[in-house]
Amino acid sequence: MRVTGTGHASMRIDTAAGSILCDPWVNPAYFASWFPFPDNSQLDWESLGQVDYLYVSHLHRDHFDAAHLKRYVSKQATVLLPEFPTSEMEDELRELGFTKFLKAPNEQVVELDGGLKIMIQALTSPTDGPIGDSSLWVEYDGVRLLNQNDARPTDLSTFAELGHVHAHMLQFSGAIWYPMVYELPQAAKTAFGKQKRDRQFDRTWRYIDDLKASHVFPIAGPPCFLDDELWQFNDIFGDEGNIFPDQSVFLREYAKVGGTNGVVLLPGSVAEITTDGCETTHPVPVEEFFANKVAHLEEMRERKRPIIEAEKASWRHPEVDVLGEMKRRIEPLLDESIYLAKGVGGPVRFDLVDTDASGEETVESIVVDFPGKEVRPYADEKVRYRFRTHRGLIEQLLHSGEVDWVNSLFLSCRFSAARIGQYNEFVYAFFKCLSEERLQYAEGWYDEHERAVDAEDITLGDWVVQRRCPHLKADLGRFGIVEGDQLTCQLHGWRFDLASGRCLTSVGHKIRAHRADEAPAPAPEPAS
Ligand code: FES
What we know:
By secondary structure, the protein is α+β, with helices and mostly antiparallel strands.
Protein backbone atom coordinates (compact mmCIF):
# COMPACT_ATOMS: atom_id res chain seq x y z
CA MET A 1 0.00 0.00 0.00
CA ARG A 2 1.36 3.38 -0.99
CA VAL A 3 0.42 6.56 0.84
CA THR A 4 1.27 9.95 -0.63
CA GLY A 5 1.19 12.90 1.74
CA THR A 6 -0.89 15.68 0.24
CA GLY A 7 -0.96 18.10 3.17
CA HIS A 8 -2.87 18.62 6.44
CA ALA A 9 -5.34 15.69 6.83
CA SER A 10 -5.12 14.84 3.16
CA MET A 11 -3.48 11.78 1.62
CA ARG A 12 -3.76 9.61 -1.41
CA ILE A 13 -3.84 5.85 -0.82
CA ASP A 14 -2.85 3.66 -3.75
CA THR A 15 -3.29 -0.09 -4.01
CA ALA A 16 -3.42 -2.46 -6.96
CA ALA A 17 -7.20 -2.57 -6.42
CA GLY A 18 -7.78 1.16 -6.53
CA SER A 19 -6.86 4.55 -5.17
CA ILE A 20 -8.53 6.73 -2.52
CA LEU A 21 -8.04 10.47 -2.14
CA CYS A 22 -8.83 11.68 1.38
CA ASP A 23 -9.77 15.21 2.48
CA PRO A 24 -7.91 17.25 -0.15
CA TRP A 25 -7.61 20.83 1.15
CA VAL A 26 -5.68 23.59 -0.58
CA ASN A 27 -7.68 26.85 -0.53
CA PRO A 28 -7.72 28.94 2.65
CA ALA A 29 -10.54 28.19 5.08
CA TYR A 30 -12.50 30.12 7.71
CA PHE A 31 -12.36 33.67 6.37
CA ALA A 32 -8.89 33.13 4.90
CA SER A 33 -7.45 32.39 8.34
CA TRP A 34 -6.23 28.84 7.90
CA PHE A 35 -3.86 27.67 5.18
CA PRO A 36 -2.46 24.15 4.82
CA PHE A 37 0.98 23.75 6.37
CA PRO A 38 3.33 22.83 4.79
CA ASP A 39 2.16 24.42 1.55
CA ASN A 40 0.58 21.85 -0.77
CA SER A 41 -0.68 24.15 -3.50
CA GLN A 42 2.14 23.27 -5.85
CA LEU A 43 1.52 19.53 -5.94
CA ASP A 44 0.40 17.98 -9.20
CA TRP A 45 -3.29 18.01 -8.31
CA GLU A 46 -4.34 17.21 -11.89
CA SER A 47 -2.81 13.76 -11.42
CA LEU A 48 -3.59 13.35 -7.73
CA GLY A 49 -7.26 14.00 -8.42
CA GLN A 50 -7.56 11.12 -10.89
CA VAL A 51 -8.67 8.51 -8.39
CA ASP A 52 -11.15 5.68 -8.04
CA TYR A 53 -12.54 6.79 -4.69
CA LEU A 54 -12.92 10.03 -2.77
CA TYR A 55 -13.29 10.12 1.00
CA VAL A 56 -14.23 13.33 2.79
CA SER A 57 -14.25 12.73 6.53
CA HIS A 58 -16.55 15.65 7.37
CA LEU A 59 -17.64 19.08 6.27
CA HIS A 60 -15.12 21.22 8.13
CA ARG A 61 -13.60 23.46 5.49
CA ASP A 62 -10.08 22.21 6.09
CA HIS A 63 -11.33 18.77 5.02
CA PHE A 64 -13.97 19.74 2.50
CA ASP A 65 -12.57 22.22 -0.02
CA ALA A 66 -15.42 22.72 -2.47
CA ALA A 67 -13.48 24.72 -5.08
CA HIS A 68 -10.64 22.23 -5.11
CA LEU A 69 -12.92 19.18 -5.28
CA LYS A 70 -14.79 20.76 -8.15
CA ARG A 71 -11.71 21.69 -10.13
CA TYR A 72 -9.36 18.78 -9.55
CA VAL A 73 -11.07 15.59 -8.40
CA SER A 74 -12.40 13.20 -11.02
CA LYS A 75 -16.18 13.08 -11.10
CA GLN A 76 -15.81 9.42 -12.03
CA ALA A 77 -14.60 8.81 -8.48
CA THR A 78 -16.96 6.97 -6.17
CA VAL A 79 -17.51 8.88 -2.96
CA LEU A 80 -17.12 6.77 0.18
CA LEU A 81 -19.79 8.36 2.31
CA PRO A 82 -19.93 8.18 6.12
CA GLU A 83 -23.34 7.38 7.56
CA PHE A 84 -24.17 10.84 8.87
CA PRO A 85 -27.56 11.82 10.24
CA THR A 86 -28.14 14.54 7.66
CA SER A 87 -27.67 14.44 3.89
CA GLU A 88 -25.63 17.67 3.78
CA MET A 89 -22.37 16.09 2.67
CA GLU A 90 -23.95 14.13 -0.15
CA ASP A 91 -25.96 17.18 -1.22
CA GLU A 92 -22.87 19.39 -1.33
CA LEU A 93 -20.85 16.80 -3.25
CA ARG A 94 -23.66 16.29 -5.76
CA GLU A 95 -23.68 20.02 -6.33
CA LEU A 96 -19.99 19.82 -7.18
CA GLY A 97 -20.70 17.18 -9.84
CA PHE A 98 -20.11 13.89 -8.03
CA THR A 99 -22.71 11.27 -8.92
CA LYS A 100 -21.36 7.98 -7.59
CA PHE A 101 -21.82 7.35 -3.90
CA LEU A 102 -21.16 4.38 -1.72
CA LYS A 103 -22.95 4.88 1.57
CA ALA A 104 -20.84 2.93 3.98
CA PRO A 105 -22.96 1.37 6.74
CA ASN A 106 -21.51 2.57 10.00
CA GLU A 107 -18.69 0.41 11.38
CA GLN A 108 -19.22 -2.33 8.80
CA VAL A 109 -16.45 -3.61 6.59
CA VAL A 110 -17.29 -3.08 2.92
CA GLU A 111 -15.46 -5.05 0.25
CA LEU A 112 -14.78 -3.00 -2.87
CA ASP A 113 -13.58 -4.32 -6.22
CA GLY A 114 -10.34 -6.26 -6.31
CA GLY A 115 -10.21 -7.15 -2.62
CA LEU A 116 -9.89 -3.61 -1.29
CA LYS A 117 -11.75 -3.33 2.00
CA ILE A 118 -12.87 -0.24 3.85
CA MET A 119 -14.75 0.60 7.01
CA ILE A 120 -15.97 4.04 8.06
CA GLN A 121 -16.83 5.00 11.59
CA ALA A 122 -19.11 8.02 11.73
CA LEU A 123 -19.32 10.10 14.89
CA THR A 124 -22.60 11.92 15.12
CA SER A 125 -22.84 13.97 18.29
CA PRO A 126 -23.59 17.68 17.81
CA THR A 127 -20.12 18.41 19.14
CA ASP A 128 -18.37 16.23 16.52
CA GLY A 129 -17.21 18.44 13.67
CA PRO A 130 -20.03 20.32 11.97
CA ILE A 131 -22.53 17.65 13.10
CA GLY A 132 -20.37 14.68 12.31
CA ASP A 133 -16.82 13.51 11.86
CA SER A 134 -15.48 10.16 10.74
CA SER A 135 -12.49 7.84 10.37
CA LEU A 136 -11.57 5.55 7.49
CA TRP A 137 -10.06 2.09 7.87
CA VAL A 138 -8.54 0.46 4.78
CA GLU A 139 -7.19 -3.04 4.20
CA TYR A 140 -5.48 -4.39 1.14
CA ASP A 141 -3.30 -7.44 0.77
CA GLY A 142 -2.88 -7.84 4.53
CA VAL A 143 -1.85 -4.20 5.11
CA ARG A 144 -4.21 -2.17 7.30
CA LEU A 145 -4.40 1.58 7.67
CA LEU A 146 -6.50 3.76 9.94
CA ASN A 147 -6.99 7.37 8.88
CA GLN A 148 -8.43 8.70 12.13
CA ASN A 149 -7.74 12.33 11.09
CA ASP A 150 -9.30 14.63 13.72
CA ALA A 151 -12.11 12.30 14.80
CA ARG A 152 -12.23 11.50 18.49
CA PRO A 153 -13.99 8.20 19.05
CA THR A 154 -14.25 7.09 22.65
CA ASP A 155 -11.87 4.26 21.84
CA LEU A 156 -10.37 2.48 18.85
CA SER A 157 -11.50 -1.05 19.68
CA THR A 158 -13.77 -1.22 16.61
CA PHE A 159 -10.67 -0.94 14.43
CA ALA A 160 -8.31 -2.94 16.64
CA GLU A 161 -10.68 -5.91 16.47
CA LEU A 162 -10.13 -6.11 12.71
CA GLY A 163 -6.49 -7.05 13.14
CA HIS A 164 -3.15 -5.36 13.64
CA VAL A 165 -2.98 -1.91 12.02
CA HIS A 166 0.21 -1.01 10.15
CA ALA A 167 -0.37 2.71 9.60
CA HIS A 168 -2.22 4.96 12.03
CA MET A 169 -2.82 8.56 10.93
CA LEU A 170 -4.14 10.92 13.59
CA GLN A 171 -4.36 14.48 14.78
CA PHE A 172 -1.99 15.71 17.47
CA SER A 173 -2.13 19.51 17.22
CA GLY A 174 -4.76 22.12 18.04
CA ALA A 175 -7.67 23.15 15.83
CA ILE A 176 -9.69 25.54 17.92
CA TRP A 177 -9.88 29.15 19.05
CA TYR A 178 -9.19 28.44 22.74
CA PRO A 179 -7.59 30.06 24.60
CA MET A 180 -6.13 32.58 22.15
CA VAL A 181 -9.25 34.62 21.51
CA TYR A 182 -10.24 35.03 25.14
CA GLU A 183 -9.83 38.44 26.73
CA LEU A 184 -7.54 37.25 29.50
CA PRO A 185 -4.20 38.42 30.88
CA GLN A 186 -1.37 37.04 28.78
CA ALA A 187 -0.04 34.92 31.66
CA ALA A 188 -3.41 33.18 32.03
CA LYS A 189 -3.62 32.57 28.30
CA THR A 190 -0.16 31.03 28.31
CA ALA A 191 -1.04 28.79 31.25
CA PHE A 192 -4.30 27.63 29.64
CA GLY A 193 -2.57 27.16 26.30
CA LYS A 194 0.15 25.06 27.85
CA GLN A 195 -2.45 22.94 29.60
CA LYS A 196 -4.25 22.47 26.30
CA ARG A 197 -1.07 21.64 24.41
CA ASP A 198 -0.15 18.99 27.01
CA ARG A 199 -3.66 17.56 26.91
CA GLN A 200 -3.58 17.28 23.12
CA PHE A 201 -0.41 15.24 23.32
CA ASP A 202 -1.75 13.08 26.17
CA ARG A 203 -4.84 12.26 24.15
CA THR A 204 -2.70 11.42 21.13
CA TRP A 205 -0.48 9.06 23.16
CA ARG A 206 -3.59 7.35 24.47
CA TYR A 207 -4.97 6.72 20.99
CA ILE A 208 -1.59 5.50 19.79
CA ASP A 209 -1.37 3.17 22.72
CA ASP A 210 -4.90 1.91 22.08
CA LEU A 211 -4.08 0.78 18.57
CA LYS A 212 -0.39 -0.04 18.83
CA ALA A 213 0.05 0.34 15.08
CA SER A 214 3.39 -0.38 13.44
CA HIS A 215 3.75 3.22 12.23
CA VAL A 216 2.18 6.46 13.43
CA PHE A 217 1.65 9.43 11.12
CA PRO A 218 0.90 12.84 12.69
CA ILE A 219 -1.62 14.55 10.41
CA ALA A 220 -4.57 16.96 10.36
CA GLY A 221 -2.69 19.97 11.55
CA PRO A 222 -1.49 22.39 12.45
CA PRO A 223 -2.75 24.92 9.90
CA CYS A 224 -0.72 28.06 9.33
CA PHE A 225 -1.90 31.63 9.67
CA LEU A 226 -0.66 33.94 6.95
CA ASP A 227 -2.70 37.08 7.54
CA ASP A 228 -0.64 39.64 9.46
CA GLU A 229 -3.52 39.92 11.97
CA LEU A 230 -3.14 36.23 12.87
CA TRP A 231 0.56 35.63 12.28
CA GLN A 232 1.20 35.31 16.04
CA PHE A 233 -0.73 32.03 16.12
CA ASN A 234 2.04 30.22 14.24
CA ASP A 235 4.20 28.19 16.60
CA ILE A 236 7.44 29.96 15.71
CA PHE A 237 7.96 32.18 18.75
CA GLY A 238 8.95 29.61 21.35
CA ASP A 239 5.63 30.16 23.15
CA GLU A 240 4.91 27.15 25.35
CA GLY A 241 1.24 28.15 25.41
CA ASN A 242 0.87 27.87 21.62
CA ILE A 243 -1.66 25.15 20.80
CA PHE A 244 -0.42 24.57 17.23
CA PRO A 245 2.76 22.48 17.58
CA ASP A 246 3.96 21.04 14.27
CA GLN A 247 4.98 17.55 13.19
CA SER A 248 8.61 18.02 14.24
CA VAL A 249 7.45 18.88 17.77
CA PHE A 250 5.28 15.79 17.67
CA LEU A 251 8.33 13.62 16.93
CA ARG A 252 10.25 15.24 19.78
CA GLU A 253 7.45 14.85 22.32
CA TYR A 254 6.66 11.34 21.10
CA ALA A 255 10.29 10.35 21.66
CA LYS A 256 10.01 11.56 25.27
CA VAL A 257 7.29 8.96 25.91
CA GLY A 258 9.30 6.27 24.14
CA GLY A 259 7.74 6.58 20.67
CA THR A 260 10.09 5.53 17.90
CA ASN A 261 7.69 4.71 15.07
CA GLY A 262 6.54 8.22 14.07
CA VAL A 263 6.59 9.04 10.35
CA VAL A 264 6.12 12.59 9.06
CA LEU A 265 4.64 13.03 5.61
CA LEU A 266 5.37 16.31 3.88
CA PRO A 267 3.26 17.18 0.84
CA GLY A 268 4.74 14.93 -1.82
CA SER A 269 6.26 12.39 0.60
CA VAL A 270 5.57 8.79 -0.34
CA ALA A 271 5.33 5.94 2.16
CA GLU A 272 5.38 2.36 0.92
CA ILE A 273 3.73 0.36 3.68
CA THR A 274 3.96 -3.40 3.89
CA THR A 275 3.24 -5.88 6.67
CA ASP A 276 6.98 -5.78 7.41
CA GLY A 277 7.84 -2.11 7.33
CA CYS A 278 7.51 1.37 5.89
CA GLU A 279 9.89 2.97 3.40
CA THR A 280 9.42 6.70 3.04
CA THR A 281 10.84 9.17 0.56
CA HIS A 282 10.48 12.92 0.91
CA PRO A 283 10.71 15.87 -1.50
CA VAL A 284 13.17 17.48 0.97
CA PRO A 285 14.64 16.00 4.14
CA VAL A 286 12.10 16.43 6.95
CA GLU A 287 14.58 17.89 9.44
CA GLU A 288 15.83 20.38 6.90
CA PHE A 289 12.28 21.44 6.09
CA PHE A 290 11.39 22.17 9.72
CA ALA A 291 14.69 23.91 10.34
CA ASN A 292 13.58 26.37 7.64
CA LYS A 293 9.99 26.66 8.80
CA VAL A 294 10.01 30.42 9.34
CA ALA A 295 11.40 31.09 5.86
CA HIS A 296 8.79 28.73 4.39
CA LEU A 297 5.98 30.59 6.17
CA GLU A 298 7.33 34.02 5.22
CA GLU A 299 7.62 33.05 1.58
CA MET A 300 4.10 31.59 1.68
CA ARG A 301 2.76 34.71 3.34
CA GLU A 302 3.99 36.91 0.50
CA ARG A 303 2.68 34.54 -2.14
CA LYS A 304 -0.77 34.24 -0.56
CA ARG A 305 -1.20 37.90 0.33
CA PRO A 306 -3.31 38.73 -2.77
CA ILE A 307 -5.66 35.82 -1.96
CA ILE A 308 -6.20 37.11 1.56
CA GLU A 309 -6.75 40.67 0.34
CA ALA A 310 -9.28 39.51 -2.27
CA GLU A 311 -11.20 37.51 0.35
CA LYS A 312 -11.24 40.43 2.75
CA ALA A 313 -12.62 42.69 0.04
CA SER A 314 -15.57 40.33 -0.41
CA TRP A 315 -16.82 40.28 3.18
CA ARG A 316 -18.60 43.61 3.50
CA HIS A 317 -22.32 43.71 2.66
CA PRO A 318 -23.54 47.04 4.00
CA GLU A 319 -26.93 46.38 2.45
CA VAL A 320 -27.55 43.67 5.07
CA ASP A 321 -29.68 44.83 8.00
CA VAL A 322 -27.75 42.81 10.59
CA LEU A 323 -30.18 43.07 13.49
CA GLY A 324 -33.23 42.48 11.30
CA GLU A 325 -31.63 39.54 9.53
CA MET A 326 -30.39 37.95 12.77
CA LYS A 327 -33.93 38.25 14.16
CA ARG A 328 -35.41 36.67 11.06
CA ARG A 329 -32.93 33.79 11.02
CA ILE A 330 -32.40 33.06 14.69
CA GLU A 331 -35.66 33.77 16.50
CA PRO A 332 -37.62 30.87 14.94
CA LEU A 333 -34.78 28.54 16.00
CA LEU A 334 -34.80 29.94 19.54
CA ASP A 335 -38.52 29.24 19.67
CA GLU A 336 -37.97 25.61 18.73
CA SER A 337 -34.97 25.03 20.94
CA ILE A 338 -35.47 23.32 24.29
CA TYR A 339 -32.17 21.66 25.25
CA LEU A 340 -29.76 24.06 23.60
CA ALA A 341 -31.59 27.19 24.79
CA LYS A 342 -31.81 25.81 28.31
CA GLY A 343 -28.18 24.73 28.17
CA VAL A 344 -26.99 28.22 27.18
CA GLY A 345 -29.27 29.64 29.85
CA GLY A 346 -28.50 33.35 29.37
CA PRO A 347 -28.02 36.09 26.79
CA VAL A 348 -25.11 35.97 24.35
CA ARG A 349 -23.84 39.30 23.09
CA PHE A 350 -22.24 40.12 19.76
CA ASP A 351 -20.27 43.37 19.49
CA LEU A 352 -19.96 44.26 15.80
CA VAL A 353 -17.09 46.59 15.18
CA ASP A 354 -17.09 48.86 12.17
CA THR A 355 -14.01 50.89 11.30
CA ASP A 356 -14.28 53.87 8.96
CA ALA A 357 -11.61 55.17 6.60
CA SER A 358 -10.09 57.37 9.32
CA GLY A 359 -9.74 54.37 11.64
CA GLU A 360 -12.62 55.45 13.91
CA GLU A 361 -14.56 52.55 15.43
CA THR A 362 -18.30 52.26 15.97
CA VAL A 363 -19.80 49.26 17.75
CA GLU A 364 -23.31 47.82 17.49
CA SER A 365 -24.17 45.38 20.29
CA ILE A 366 -26.77 42.72 19.61
CA VAL A 367 -27.99 40.13 22.07
CA VAL A 368 -29.23 36.64 21.32
CA ASP A 369 -31.44 36.20 24.36
CA PHE A 370 -31.84 32.45 24.90
CA PRO A 371 -34.22 32.56 27.89
CA GLY A 372 -36.24 35.42 26.32
CA LYS A 373 -36.14 33.70 22.88
CA GLU A 374 -35.43 36.87 20.98
CA VAL A 375 -32.68 38.76 19.20
CA ARG A 376 -32.53 42.42 20.21
CA PRO A 377 -30.21 45.34 20.90
CA TYR A 378 -28.02 44.90 23.98
CA ALA A 379 -29.71 46.39 27.05
CA ASP A 380 -26.79 46.88 29.42
CA GLU A 381 -27.35 43.52 31.07
CA LYS A 382 -25.09 40.69 32.27
CA VAL A 383 -24.43 38.22 29.51
CA ARG A 384 -23.15 34.65 29.55
CA TYR A 385 -20.82 35.15 26.57
CA ARG A 386 -19.63 38.16 24.64
CA PHE A 387 -18.11 37.96 21.17
CA ARG A 388 -16.43 40.96 19.56
CA THR A 389 -15.79 40.81 15.84
CA HIS A 390 -15.69 42.78 12.58
CA ARG A 391 -19.14 43.73 11.40
CA GLY A 392 -18.20 42.62 7.87
CA LEU A 393 -17.83 39.00 8.99
CA ILE A 394 -21.38 38.88 10.35
CA GLU A 395 -22.65 40.63 7.23
CA GLN A 396 -20.96 37.96 5.14
CA LEU A 397 -22.42 35.11 7.25
CA LEU A 398 -25.90 36.54 6.86
CA HIS A 399 -25.45 37.36 3.19
CA SER A 400 -24.34 33.82 2.36
CA GLY A 401 -26.97 32.17 4.59
CA GLU A 402 -24.27 30.34 6.56
CA VAL A 403 -25.87 27.76 8.87
CA ASP A 404 -22.70 27.02 10.81
CA TRP A 405 -21.02 29.98 12.50
CA VAL A 406 -18.59 27.65 14.24
CA ASN A 407 -17.27 26.30 10.95
CA SER A 408 -16.75 29.86 9.73
CA LEU A 409 -16.59 32.70 12.25
CA PHE A 410 -15.29 30.87 15.33
CA LEU A 411 -12.67 28.76 13.60
CA SER A 412 -11.42 31.90 11.86
CA CYS A 413 -10.14 33.16 15.25
CA ARG A 414 -11.06 36.62 13.94
CA PHE A 415 -12.86 37.57 17.12
CA SER A 416 -12.30 37.99 20.82
CA ALA A 417 -14.46 36.50 23.53
CA ALA A 418 -15.27 36.86 27.20
CA ARG A 419 -17.54 34.71 29.29
CA ILE A 420 -18.94 34.47 32.78
CA GLY A 421 -18.41 31.04 34.31
CA GLN A 422 -17.47 27.84 32.62
CA TYR A 423 -17.22 26.86 28.99
CA ASN A 424 -20.67 26.25 27.61
CA GLU A 425 -20.80 23.70 24.80
CA PHE A 426 -24.44 24.56 24.10
CA VAL A 427 -23.46 28.02 22.87
CA TYR A 428 -21.31 26.51 20.14
CA ALA A 429 -23.74 23.66 19.43
CA PHE A 430 -26.47 26.25 18.81
CA PHE A 431 -24.36 28.42 16.51
CA LYS A 432 -23.47 25.43 14.34
CA CYS A 433 -27.17 24.58 14.02
CA LEU A 434 -28.64 27.64 12.35
CA SER A 435 -30.96 25.61 10.18
CA GLU A 436 -34.12 23.73 10.97
CA GLU A 437 -32.60 20.38 10.01
CA ARG A 438 -29.49 20.79 12.16
CA LEU A 439 -31.32 22.21 15.14
CA GLN A 440 -33.87 19.41 15.16
CA TYR A 441 -31.09 16.86 14.99
CA ALA A 442 -29.14 18.41 17.86
CA GLU A 443 -32.24 18.76 20.04
CA GLY A 444 -33.13 15.13 19.40
CA TRP A 445 -29.60 14.02 20.20
CA TYR A 446 -29.49 15.82 23.53
CA ASP A 447 -32.96 14.56 24.37
CA GLU A 448 -31.92 10.97 23.77
CA HIS A 449 -28.64 11.29 25.63
CA GLU A 450 -30.04 13.12 28.61
CA ARG A 451 -32.57 10.35 29.02
CA ALA A 452 -30.09 7.54 28.61
CA VAL A 453 -29.32 5.93 31.90
CA ASP A 454 -25.70 4.94 32.29
CA ALA A 455 -25.79 2.61 35.22
CA GLU A 456 -22.37 0.99 35.22
CA ASP A 457 -19.79 2.11 37.78
CA ILE A 458 -16.06 1.50 38.03
CA THR A 459 -13.49 2.06 40.75
CA LEU A 460 -10.73 4.60 40.12
CA GLY A 461 -8.34 5.08 43.01
CA ASP A 462 -10.39 5.79 46.12
CA TRP A 463 -13.52 6.56 44.13
CA VAL A 464 -16.38 4.71 42.50
CA VAL A 465 -17.53 6.63 39.41
CA GLN A 466 -19.85 6.03 36.50
CA ARG A 467 -18.02 4.23 33.72
CA ARG A 468 -19.02 6.63 30.94
CA CYS A 469 -17.90 10.25 30.94
CA PRO A 470 -20.90 12.60 31.27
CA HIS A 471 -19.55 14.61 28.32
CA LEU A 472 -19.42 12.27 25.33
CA LYS A 473 -19.39 8.87 27.00
CA ALA A 474 -15.68 8.08 26.92
CA ASP A 475 -14.79 5.03 28.96
CA LEU A 476 -13.34 6.51 32.14
CA GLY A 477 -11.63 3.20 32.81
CA ARG A 478 -9.30 4.23 29.96
CA PHE A 479 -9.53 8.01 29.82
CA GLY A 480 -10.18 8.88 33.48
CA ILE A 481 -7.35 10.06 35.73
CA VAL A 482 -8.09 10.69 39.40
CA GLU A 483 -5.88 13.10 41.33
CA GLY A 484 -7.08 13.75 44.86
CA ASP A 485 -10.79 14.54 44.62
CA GLN A 486 -10.68 15.49 40.96
CA LEU A 487 -11.20 13.36 37.90
CA THR A 488 -9.95 14.41 34.47
CA CYS A 489 -11.30 12.72 31.36
CA GLN A 490 -8.44 12.87 28.91
CA LEU A 491 -10.58 12.63 25.80
CA HIS A 492 -11.42 16.33 25.87
CA GLY A 493 -9.80 17.24 29.18
CA TRP A 494 -12.97 17.86 31.16
CA ARG A 495 -12.55 17.87 34.95
CA PHE A 496 -15.00 16.84 37.64
CA ASP A 497 -15.09 17.43 41.38
CA LEU A 498 -15.85 13.95 42.67
CA ALA A 499 -17.15 14.98 46.08
CA SER A 500 -19.96 17.08 44.61
CA GLY A 501 -20.10 15.49 41.15
CA ARG A 502 -19.85 18.97 39.64
CA CYS A 503 -18.24 19.39 36.24
CA LEU A 504 -15.49 22.01 36.57
CA THR A 505 -15.09 22.53 32.84
CA SER A 506 -18.60 23.13 31.55
CA VAL A 507 -22.09 23.77 32.80
CA GLY A 508 -24.24 20.70 33.54
CA HIS A 509 -22.75 17.24 33.00
CA LYS A 510 -22.77 16.15 36.63
CA ILE A 511 -20.90 12.92 37.31
CA ARG A 512 -22.06 10.13 39.63
CA ALA A 513 -19.32 9.35 42.14
CA HIS A 514 -18.79 8.32 45.71
CA ARG A 515 -15.86 7.29 47.86
CA ALA A 516 -15.23 3.57 47.63
CA ASP A 517 -15.65 3.20 51.37
CA GLU A 518 -18.85 5.25 51.57
CA ALA A 519 -22.48 4.87 50.46
CA PRO A 520 -23.32 5.88 46.86
CA ALA A 521 -24.31 9.47 46.14
CA PRO A 522 -27.71 10.24 44.57
CA ALA A 523 -28.02 9.84 40.78
CA PRO A 524 -26.86 12.82 38.69
CA GLU A 525 -29.40 15.39 37.60
CA PRO A 526 -29.87 16.26 33.94
CA ALA A 527 -27.69 19.03 32.51
CA SER A 528 -29.07 22.50 32.94
S1 FES B 1 -15.83 12.42 26.67
FE1 FES B 1 -15.28 14.50 26.46
S2 FES B 1 -14.23 14.91 28.31
FE2 FES B 1 -14.90 12.88 28.52
